[in-house]
Amino acid sequence: MTERGFLVFGTPIGACGIVWGDRGVVGVQLPESSEAAVRARVRREFPGAREVPPPPEVRRAVDGIGALLGGEARDLAFVELDMRHVPPFHRRVFEVARTIPPGSTLSYGEIAARLGEPGAARDVGSALGQNPFAIVVPCHRVLAANGKLGGFSAHGGVKTKRRLLSIEGVQAPGTVPLFERGPLAR
Known about the structure:
The protein is of the alpha/beta class.
């Protein structure tokens, strides 16, 4: 196993974490109640990762994530992801999800159809529920049928999903207004 580095960094909605290895980003952590909580989760999910300064390509990803969470319509498709340990179906789902531009959404069923598996909406949801690359693989842009929010496995659950969509200008049911930014876990 290659050595992994991580960084906890500030964004307009709170501290996030990013973990990388020699083949790209292996994980992104959304804000929790504190920087210490983000750091603890990163250490639990990526044992052995060391907190070190990021290489230039990871710094660029961090800057892009911060800009997106600050309300800029930033495309993060340039971020290199290391998906060696991601199951093949999940990888295909993540690749389709990465094509959803900021401010847009698709349904779980629409992603399943794009995969050529129109009956696999629940499997798409399951894959996105295990997304280790939150924001970079924008699972928050995937909704249930009829525009309902569906679930969200990141800290803060559906409340976090609403806030992320609001930042991007998507008015989903119960969306938090843009001016109410701050740490997600309150």
